[in-house]
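Standup notes
- DV: blocked on the single-chain target, sequence here:
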Amino acid sequence: MSLNQRIETWLQQTRSAFEHGSHATQRPFVTLCFAQSLDGSLALRAGETLRLSGAGSTKLTHQLRSLHDGILVGIGTVLADDPQLTVREWNGRHPQPIVLDSQLRLPASARVCTASGKRCWVLTSQKMTANGIDCELLQVADNGSGQVALPSALQVLRQRGIRSLMVEGGASVLTAFLQARLVDALVLTIAPHVLGGYKAVGELGLANDNPLPRLAPLHSDQLGNDLIVWGALDFTAGSA
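- DV (later): unblocked, structure below
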């Protein structure tokens, strides 16, 4: 069985277990999927783009997109990368594109609005109009700090038929999902570079005497020059 097949089978089994759990009717199954350097950096500096993944890892990312109902990025990723969030390197369906944009900064020219043929959903906490942007605004609760409350956002997505959600970034979004413990699975590409740059995951507010999130069990394999690490994320088992 190829690496791609192994990860797909694992993801389907992990999602099936989630669907039989207590959270299944409240929110989608959430997979974090991103690439970083050996030292945990996404780019040299915040707001910049740096392609880290090799061709095989990019193909795997597009395969994973096709296995999820929705794909979510933050507005920072849209402004920096202008991604399409489509399945181009794999034979599969496009997921529903979703942008987390609390202040509604999405530009009308963003490719995410048109690339997949699906109308982009924008999760926002602002009572605003789309201002000519061809997208659907989904207003959700504020978390008290000017950002979209993630539990409320995920509830809305589940109600709209999103049973599985792939979260690709950027750093503030990855960190927010981990802080909120709203991650069920992780697929991480580690590129063979040392950047000393902008970190993929920020401060999580963890304490030494509390359980540390970990992959349990942890899986890994090499794909081209990249290392792929994947597993279900456990927030309760600790580090032992």
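- Follow-up: The radius of gyration is 17 Å.
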